[in-house]
Write a structure and sequence with these properties.
The chain has 303 residues and is of the alpha/beta class. It is 34% helix and 24% strand. The chain contains 9 helices and 13 strands. It has a 5-stranded mixed beta sheet with strand order 2-1-3-10-4, sandwiched between helices. Strands 7-6-8-5-9 form a 5-stranded mixed beta sheet, sandwiched between helices. Helix 8 packs parallel to helix 9. The chain is globular.
Amino acid sequence: MKVRIGTRKSKLALWQASYVKEFLERRWGIEAELVKITTTGDKILDAPLAKIGGKGLFVKEIEQALLRGDIDLAVHSLKDVPMVIPEGLTLGAITKRETPYDVLISRSGKKLMELPPGSKVGTSSLRRQVQIKRLRRDLKVEILRGNVDTRIRKLREGLYDAIILAYAGVKRMGYEGEITEVLTHFIPAVGQGSLAVEIREGDERIRRLVEPLNHKESYVSALCERAFLRKLAGGCQVPVGAFAEVKDGIVKIRGFISDIEGTKFIEGEEKGSIEEAERVGERLAEDLLGRGGKEILEEIYGG
């Protein structure tokens, strides 16, 4: 029986779904097909994600197809998956994480700290915007939407002097050679760099098929980061970032919460055993909330 894989239609989404398709066919000798689905986030291209509701924009229609039984599994960028999974669905696997950092691509070949004052930097992410502002308040941060190809084309056309993207997407789309700087000092988005394979709860056949795709360290990191964000109740309207790493049985997470302008920027670190990964993420969130994060959230959401 053919396995149907739900995916968005963008080139990057198709690359990601094809990666899972080829793995399943190679590993199990089964036939798999891609089912392309248009999501709300794909339809609204002229507004910042924060203004149109953020989380779930790129997965909701795919999850509905999975619940209806139109597809057998779904492949998402983990960072697009809401912190609360709909009843009846679960994450069957988190793939090995690609480099999770953001990258800068500039027309001049200049790094972030070398860009002339007034340079236009494009990004759609509040998380990236506040981290740019903290370092370079003299730059013009402008909204940039669209897939990787579109964003790079807009840069080449001179609409921006530089753009910031996720390393993973840039690499997967073959633009690695265009990278000017890897922004290792920026805290990434929760889940950035990993793929999530979503399945129906209780579907043992599909669970067994996708299980070998699960990468333990990446899975633990994801649990920790997602617990952090869930505790903060942060959507796309709040500038938040977190990055967890696993080493020698210990998970360590650093994260931040900021106001929109990057003037109130609260960051911290936590660590603990991998068995308590979610609790470690929650502890960091509690720490940040207690140090002014609660006030930031109330300010952003209007109290």
